[in-house]
Amino acid sequence: MSFLLHSRPVILVAGAGVLFSGCAAWYIVGRRLSVRVASLAREVELLRQEVERLRNIVEQLLPPQPPKFEKNASFHNSSLMTSDDDETYEDAYGGPLPWLTGLRSTALTNDLDSRSITSDDYLSANSFQSLDSDETAQLFNKVDRLFDGSDQDKQEAYDILSKKKSKLSNDANFVWRLAKATYFRSQIVGTSDKEEQRRLIFSSKDIAKEALQLDEKNSNAHKWYAIALGSTNDYESVKVKIQNGYDFKSHIERAIVLNPTDPTSHYLLGRWCFGVYMLSWVERRAAATLFATPPTATIDETLEHFLEADKLKPGTWKENLLFIAKCYIQKREYETALQWLDKADVLPTMGQDDELSQQEITTLLKQYSSYRN
In the chain, which residues have pLDDT < 70? Predict the structure, then answer.
């Protein structure tokens, strides 16, 4: 008893210490739990918002219930796809369907890389098959060189071809060049005159179609029709964009059959396949809702197209090398991906396309640096 009496102060102090420590521990645990709960709440709210956006997308893409007096309402009526539907879908994904971005990338519809898309056109076997005079040959050689130059040079090519239209409108090789020049003219106009840009883009598509009607076996006519067609997607409904995607692929494949040595066509088909491969489940369902057979592509066939483009234009195309690396990243072959990124990284940056590619190359090199041997 005396021991307890003598020890009472110590016990009280110890007890107070234990109580304080316990309270402090509970406070710390409680604080951490509160922070974690708040974090989880934010995550749940973000997920709820995402689910709500996806639900709205699906509802917009699903056919509405027809009025009772309509017995044969068809979802494929274009009036069902409004501009509001497009905005809802694109806002949810931060842009158009990914497999359509292959058609609308900067390499295709903004500032074409003259080294990748312009300089290969006049190398095809049928480029000069319809030439009937030295004057026409000289004309084609001149505008082909201008296509590889500055915006001012491209404008000059457009002016030259426009003046010759009445004389050479029955020559498929002239007409696809005019379509190409019109496309470049639309890019020069840019967003400073949106109506004029829109007119030129659709004009480019129509002119390229005329070239195809003149010579269905002209590979460049198929290629430039596909490029111009993809450019019109900025002004089309989701349904039309998806249909354009199928048509784009069809014409690029035809161009490759007619001229298998054109690296640009292989690259364009690779871009299409890459976009399709990267589709999310929701986007696949959206495409399946609009068309019975949604687009499909494997990463191996995608890689094959990019490798073929590099084989035809070895080691000189920064953007193509980047996409080869991205394919290997999807295959989880990171060391190989780094090798291709290194090849792309050392190439000089020429133009806006290369600048955008270089930004992504730098990011990927840093992201996967731990996989170096």
Answer: 1-132
